[in-house]
Write a structure and sequence with these properties.
Layout lengths: L1 E6 L3 H12 L4 E7 L2 H10 L4 E5 L10 H11 L5 E5 L4 H9 L4 E4 L3 H13 L4 E2 L1 H10 L12 H11 L4 H8 L3 H15 L4 H10 L5
Parallel strand pairs: 1-2, 1-3, 3-4, 4-5, 5-6
GO molecular function: DNA binding
Keywords: DNA-binding, Phosphoprotein
Pfam families: GerE, Response_reg
């Protein structure tokens, strides 16, 4: 019987995941956490074979997103981590694999794909939801596990945008033209394969650019 710990800040999501995970009779959920702090306490006291965790669980002292993934990889290098996320874009996929995730499941597809992901990571394989694989193909060739790289100026613009500043305010702050800032924003979004401001802000927060 595979021992699974699940982490999500929404109780209804954890209930659904428990049902899906235990339905086949091969897995048992041995612990649940509602955030990064509780998850780390749980992992220190309860043995498990697979971790299924949300990507964005704000609150507490420990960072979520890529910060949490990096910590898990350092403290529990042999533990397969399955990331369940609603930030379904190429940037999240590539960066999450680069930070140690073994599988990434879109929340919209978790009910049918979570058992498949668990089977994959136990065999030492990686897994990504079908909708994410389609996006990777559309994004073109390249190292699919390599985190997208932004220039220092592009990263600066993304950080300021995510902190609530407008393009005009950023241009005035860094003494560059509005058109230059707009171009750097567009280039950053293109590198990250992100098409909306909402996804860009979510990416910035998950990378620790803003609190």
């Amino acid at each position: 019987m595979l021992r699974v710990i699940i982490a999500d800040d929404h109780p209804i999501v954890r209930i659904g995941q428990r049902v899906v995970i235990e339905a086949g009779g091969k897995c048992k959920v041995v612990g649940e956490a509602d955030g990064p702090d509780e998850l780390l306490r749980l992992l220190s006291t309860v043995a498990c074979d697979v971790l299924v965790t949300d990507f964005a669980m704000p609150g507490g002292q420990q960072a979520d997103g890529y910060g949490l993934l990096g910590l898990l990889r350092r403290q529990y290098p042999a533990l397969p981590v399955i990331l369940v996320t609603m930030f379904a874009n190429v940037a999240t996929l590539r960066a999450s694999f680069a930070h140690g995730a073994r599988a990434i499941v879109a929340k919209s597809a978790s009910a049918r794909e979570l058992p498949i992901a668990i089977n994959a990571v136990i065999k030492g394989e990686t897994f990504a939801s079908e909708c994410l694989r389609v996006q990777l193909v559309s994004a073109g060739p390249g190292d699919q596990l390599q985190q997208p790289q932004l220039s220092s100026k592009e990263r600066e613009v993304v950080r300021m945008l995510a902190s609530g500043m407008t393009v005009s305010q950023i241009a005035a702050r860094v003494n560059r033209s509005i058109s230059t800032i707009s171009k750097q924003k567009s280039t950053a979004m293109s590198r990250l394969c992100i098409s909306t401001d909402v996804d860009l802000f979510a990416y910035a927060r998950s990378c620790g650019m803003v609190p």
